[in-house]
Amino acid sequence: MPLTRYVHQLIEDLEAAKSRVPEVPKCLYEEPVEGLWHIAEWENAPGKPLSEWFGISKDVFPPVSQLAPDEIKKLAFAMSNLWVTFSFIPVLPINLPAEHVYQVLYDNWDREAQYLSDSRTWLEFCDYDPTNCPFPIEYCELREECLKPPESMD
Asked: pTM above 0.90?
């Protein structure tokens, strides 16, 4: 049974969350070192769960099994768009189907990250261990590297 009305409201909430992008902390610029203010920000920026940055709990997202294919696509797009608005860039394989995008973003919704005002934070999900891969192997762009046997220490 499609959750169309609920999904529509959830997408509106994801769009509204874009207004929560933090302002640049002024204390980082009081005594900037010429050209190095971004390092001070990186060293001092707090880390917290993405769900806190966004102001949207992970609990509001329905399981992928309860969503229609078009709902999955719309939610996956809205979720990834919100991440990018906050400069959190999800590193996902090209052509990864929407249900996998949705699931990976959902699974990582409470992942801790630093918001940096003038930089992007690339968030990877692959740990290069094929036994623990978050993606179907046919979409993995690094499968050749992951599936290689470890080189001998000799």
From this structure: no
User: Do 102 and 66 form a contact (C-beta atoms < 8 A)?
Assistant: no
Angle between helices 98-107 and 69-85 (to 10 degrees): 50
d(CA 62, CA 56): 13
Q: For 33-79, how does the pLDDT look when each residue is reduced to its tens digit (9 = 90+)? A: 566 666 666 777 788 999 999 999 999 999 999 999 999 999 999 99
Residue with tokens 């707090």: 46
Instruction: Please name which of 49, 61, 58 lies closest in space to residue 11, comparing C-alpha atoms.
Output: 61
Written in H, E and C, the secondary structure of the chain is: CCCHHHHHHHHHHHHHHHHHCCCCCHHHHCCCCCCCHHHHHHHHCCEEEHHHHHCCCHHHCCCHHHCCHHHHHHHHHHHHHHHHHCCEEEECCCCCCHHHHHHHHHHCCCCEEECCCCCCEEEECCCCCHHHCCCCHHHCCCHHHHHCCCCCCC
> Given the DSSP bridges, would you call strands 121-124 and 88-91 parallel, antiparallel or unpaired?
parallel
**What is the rounded CA–CA span in Å between residue 119 and residue 64?**
32
Q: Compute CA 79 distance to the chain's CA centroid, rounded to the nearest angstrom.
A: 8
